[in-house]
Amino acid sequence: MTDRCFFFGCWNRPGHYLVGPGRARADLPNDEAWQLCHIDGWFAPKRGRSGKLCWQAQAKTVEEDHALHWDIRDSAEYPQGQFLRHRHGKWSLLQWWDRAQGDKRGACNSSILLEGEHTTEELLAALKEHFPHVLANLDKAGVELVEVFP
């Protein structure tokens, strides 16, 4: 794969980090870091008060954001491993709730990010190629990655 690939989430300890292939902490140019600063849990699936699937970053307008805020407030996380695929700026990403990577607290999430437009299969292949220990940790915890659809 020629596109840039990153993992965002816990890296065998509490705290969320952006990590590149080879386990190196990633330092991005300011414009890209700004684009990715709101990924921490914003794209992972939740069940809103209405009972519908939602995620923090889905609002496209201020009005939608206000309406979503009341629906998503105190909403329930989907089970670990159930993910959504998104396009965010120049990135494709999968995000899921994940307590298998070194932090058991609520709101722990993981993401695989790949620059460009990519399918779910391509993103999962990048995760397997560049961050195999993430999949090993999920497997040890009995968590399977499964896509959910809006």
Give a quick set of tags describing it.
globular, alpha+beta, 150 residues, 10 strands, single chain, 3-stranded antiparallel sheet, 4 helices
Q: Explain this structure to me?
A:
With 150 residues, this protein is of the alpha+beta class. It has one domain (5-147). Helix content is 25%, strand content 28%. A 7-stranded mixed sheet has the order 3-2-1-9-8-7-10, covered by helices on one side. Strands 5-4-6 form a 3-stranded antiparallel sheet, with helices on one face. Helix 3 (120-130) crosses helix 4. It is globular, with a radius of gyration of 15 Å. It starts with a strand and ends with a strand.
Summarize the structure.
This protein is an alpha+beta fold and about 150 residues long. The chain contains four helices and ten strands.
Give the terminus-to-terminus CA distance: 28 Å
**Strand ordering within the main sheet:** 3-2-1-9-8-7-10
Helix content: 25-40%
Radius of gyration: 15 Å
Number of strands: 10
The ordered H/E elements are EEEHEEHEEEEHHE
Largest sheet: 7 strands, mixed
- Averaging pLDDT over every residue, what do you get? 86
Q: How many domains comprise the coordinates? A: 1
| Strand percentage | 25-35%
